[in-house]
Amino acid sequence: MSPSITAQRKSRRSVIWRALVAGAASLALPRLAWAGGQIEEALADSVRTALSSAIRYAAPPIPEFPDTESRLVYLRWLGAMSQRLQSKKPDWESRREFLQSVWYESHRAGLDTATVLGLIQVESNFRQFAVSSVGARGYMQVMPFWTRQLANGDPSTLFHMQTNLRFGCVILRHYLDVEQGDWMMALGRYNGSRGKAEYPNAVLAAKRNWQFSG
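Structure (tokenized):
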């Protein structure tokens, strides 16, 4: 075998090996997401308390209902949303816990659940470990600086499902209050594009995928 052929084979093996290593590394890293442009600001004590409690109580929240009919409405919603989300989350138990947490946190914050799901679809496409180009993390693409305002201060907690959903819903509620109920402005502020229609329109369009008539 000539030296030139041997060198070519070694070169091909080197290229293949580098490609395999790069592929393995990419699988090990969180996939990039689009958004996460919140601006750091001082928070009211009530907002800080709501965020802190998400770190103290990490288990998936359990909804409580005032009557049987309310529980049946929730179960019908859960069944309908589960079918729609199955392609993104094939495992039933993880899908149930996710939807249960979204339902709980959105209601707790006084937000429309379909809008929150639409925001998650746009922000991370339902990827728990998504990371944006500016470092926003998790389902609702929460910026790490939010954890610095708390005693915990550990940005890795934003990859935890309930913590991420609590932070995202509380922050969105905060922006909605600041914007006096104006969803277009609140969503723009959440994304860091306040005053521009592209992001709010994308979230409100995605919201239609998650509406439920009951």
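Confidence is low (pLDDT under 50) at residues 2-34. The chain has two domains: 1-30, 33-210.
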